[in-house]
Amino acid sequence: MSVLRIEPVDDATLEDWRSVHNLIIPTDPLSPDEVRERVGRNHLTVAYRDDVLVGCATVRPPTGDPATATVIVRVLPEHRRRGYGEEYHAAAVARARELGAEVIETIVLASNPDGLRFAESHGFVEVDRYLPPGDEYPFLTLRLL
Ligand SMILES: CC(C)(COP(=O)(O)OP(=O)(O)OC[C@H]1O[C@@H](n2cnc3c(N)ncnc32)[C@H](O)[C@@H]1OP(=O)(O)O)[C@@H](O)C(=O)NCCC(=O)NCCS
Questions:
Q1: Which of 25, 54, 116, 143 is deepest in the core (most CB within 10 A)?
Q2: Distance from the CA of 71 to the center of ligand 1, in angstroms?
Q3: Integer Rg of the chain from CA
Q4: What InterPro entries does the annotation carry (predicted)?
Q5: Which residue lies with its CA nearest to atom 44 of ligand 1?
Q6: What is the pLDDT of residues 63-106, one digit of tens each?
């Protein structure tokens, strides 16, 4: 049974999406305008349990051959280990498949042990890593096998 209410990002939910993103990815804080720009090219959503903000997600539509989509789910630390990540991830992967994805990738900041464990236990393997200039932790790209 689904317990999350998953909403697309619009003017009412943009700040919720941004607050979760910037808390979990502190090395890449986004301004409201940068989030608006992403709304134009990605499927951004926020998730609530009742009316409590639980997390946010990004689905980058598939590109290339094979059609490869990127799915990133983020759950606030205080709401983790209750199954929300699993439910939200399944919904985000289903959305990517509806958009035609043949291959699913995700991106995890290397300083997020919860994210790495979750990705690996859900069948993802590392295929690439990128260290932004001046940053301490790389972003890992993992692919669903
Ligand atoms: C990855 C992430 C989304 C997982 O969110 P979550 O809500 O904790 O996910 P779940 O609760 O579904 O699963 C996490 C763990 O809790 C366990 N769990 C699930 N329900 C549970 C419950 N009721 N009681 C105890 N443990 C539970 C799961 O088995 C899983 O265990 P594992 O880590 O040993 O595999 C979260 O850690 C996060 O936002 N990380 C940073 C962002 C990130 O890296 N995102 C990319 C992920 S692909």
A1: 54
A2: 15
A3: 14
A4: Acyl_CoA_acyltransferase, Bact_Acetyltransf, GNAT_dom
A5: 115
A6: 999 999 999 999 999 999 999 999 999 999 999 999 999 999 99
